[in-house]
Automatic annotation (TrEMBL):
Organism this protein belongs to: Georgenia ruanii
Domain tRNA(Ile)-lysidine/2-thiocytidine synthase N-terminal: 28-197
Function in brief: Ligates lysine onto the cytidine present at position 34 of the AUA codon-specific tRNA(Ile) that contains the anticodon CAU, in an ATP-dependent manner. Cytidine is converted to lysidine, thus changing the amino acid specificity of the tRNA from methionine to isoleucine.
Record protein name field: tRNA(Ile)-lysidine synthase
This protein's domain notes: The N-terminal region contains the highly conserved SGGXDS motif, predicted to be a P-loop motif involved in ATP binding.
Lineage: Bacteria, Bacillati, Actinomycetota, Actinomycetes, Micrococcales
Pfam entry (one): TilS
UniProt GO molecular function: ATP binding; tRNA(Ile)-lysidine synthase activity
C-alpha cells in the first residue's frame, strides 16, 4: 500500500493530535462549508476517527446570503457523506443579510449565526469536540486584523488551537496544503465569492471586507517585501503572545473578581482597580466591558483606554460609550457598565 500524499498525511496527523485526549466512543462534529480547508478537514476526520474509535459526523451551515447557497450547502453535506460521515445542513438567518448588522458588518453577523448553529448541533449530537478548518493563513490574517484594530496582545494572539468544544487542527497547515489534500483525494471544493475582496459583501464604508483585503492584498505585499516566511512568523507571534496573554488574563480575572461589587449589573470598585498594574487593570476592564454586552469584534484599545481613564485619570468626565449599546459611568467610587438605555445619569461627577 503506497504512502498517502504528504499533505494528506499532515492533515490526518493534525486531526489525530488535536483529538488525542478524547476517549474511544467520543463524538466529534466537523464543520464543513465545502471549501478546501473544511473539506480537507472532513476527509482527515473521516479517516482518523473510526481508527481511533471516535464517532465523527459533519454539519454544514447555510447562511442564505447569496443565490444558490442552499444547493452549495447540500453539495457540501453530500461530499461529507461520500467520505463516510453522517452529515446535516442547518439554515440560519443572518441579521441584516449580506449587508450585515452591527459593528462587525456581514462577516461578524454571519460568524455569530454560524457559531450558534454549530453549538446547537454539537449539543444535540452530544459532541465532545467541534473541528474547525482554520489554517495558518487564517491565523496570520487574524493577527494582522488585530494589529490594525489596536486591540492589544490578546487580539494579536489570534485563534486558540482549542477552547471549549472548538478545536482547530489545521492552524499549523497552510491553505495550499488543504487544497493539495483535496486534489490528492479527488475532492472538488467550492470557492466562496463572499471571501473575495471584489465579492458581493462590502464593509460599511463600501470598501472590501477587511479579512478579504488582508488575504488578497496585504499578505501578498508583506510576503513580497519581507519574504515567504511572513505567514509562519505571524503564526509564531500569535502562539507566543497567547501564552503571555493566558497568564495575564488569569491574573486579570482575579482582579475583576475582587473589584466586582454587583456581578449582575457589572459594577466595579474603582479603588481596587486603581491600585492594580495597568496591564491587569485594562484586561479586567476589557472583560467587564464584554461581560456587560459590548460587541467583541468592535471593542478596541481606544474604548478600553477610555474606560481606564475613568479609573486612573478621572477628572469628572462624562460616560464612555462602548460598541454594542453599552455605556460606562463613574459615580460614588463605582464604575458601572450596562445598556445605555437603562443607565443612570445622577452623580456622574462624583
Amino acid at each position: 500500500m503506497s504512502a498517502p500524499h504528504p499533505a494528506v498525511a499532515a492533515a490526518r496527523s493534525a486531526v489525530r493530535a488535536t483529538l488525542a485526549d478524547l476517549p474511544p466512543g467520543a463524538r466529534v462534529l466537523v464543520a464543513c462549508s465545502g471549501g478546501a480547508d473544511s473539506l480537507a478537514l472532513a476527509a482527515a476526520a473521516a479517516f482518523v476517527a473510526p481508527r481511533a474509535g471516535w464517532l465523527a459526523s459533519a454539519v454544514t451551515v447555510d447562511h442564505g446570503l447569496q443565490p444558490g447557497s442552499a444547493d452549495v450547502a447540500r453539495h457540501a453535506a453530500a461530499r461529507c457523506r461520500a467520505l463516510g460521515l453522517a452529515a446535516t445542513v442547518r439554515a440560519v438567518e443572518v441579521p441584516g443579510g449580506s449587508g450585515g448588522r452591527g459593528a462587525g458588518g456581514p462577516e461578524a453577523a454571519a460568524r455569530t449565526a454560524r457559531y450558534a448553529a454549530l453549538a446547537a448541533a454539537a449539543r444535540e449530537a452530544e459532541a465532545a469536540a467541534v473541528l474547525l478548518g482554520h489554517t495558518l493563513d487564517d491565523q496570520a490574517e487574524t493577527v494582522l486584523l488585530g494589529l490594525a484594530r489596536g486591540s492589544g496582545a490578546r487580539s494579536l494572539a489570534g485563534m486558540a488551537p482549542a477552547r471549549g468544544p472548538w478545536r482547530r487542527p489545521f492552524l499549523a497547515l497552510r491553505r495550499a496544503q488543504t487544497e493539495a489534500v483535496c486534489r490528492a483525494l479527488g475532492l472538488d471544493f467550492v470557492l466562496d465569492p463572499g471571501n473575495a475582496a471584489a465579492g458581493p459583501w462590502r464593509a460599511a464604508d463600501g470598501t472590501a471586507l477587511r479579512r478579504a483585503a488582508v488575504r488578497e492584498r496585504v499578505l501578498p505585499a508583506l510576503a513580497d517585501a519581507l519574504g515567504p516566511g511572513v505567514v509562519p512568523a505571524l503564526g509564531r507571534t500569535a502562539a507566543q503572545l497567547r501564552r503571555d496573554a493566558d497568564l495575564l488574563d488569569g491574573l486579570a480575572a482575579d482582579l475583576l473578581a475582587q473589584a466586582l461589587v454587583d456581578g449582575a449589573a457589572v459594577v466595579l470598585d474603582v479603588t481596587v482597580l486603581a491600585a492594580a498594574h495597568p496591564a491587569l487593570r485594562t484586561r479586567a476592564l476589557q472583560t467587564a466591558a464584554l461581560r456587560s454586552g459590548a460587541a467583541p469584534g468592535a471593542l478596541a484599545a481606544v474604548h478600553v483606554e477610555a474606560l481606564d481613564a475613568l479609573v486612573a485619570a478621572y477628572h469628572g468626565q462624562g460616560p464612555v460609550q462602548l460598541p454594542g449599546g453599552v455605556v460606562a459611568r463613574r459615580a460614588c467610587g463605582r464604575l458601572s457598565l450596562g445598556p445605555a438605555r437603562g443607565a443612570a445619569t445622577a452623580d456622574e461627577t462624583q
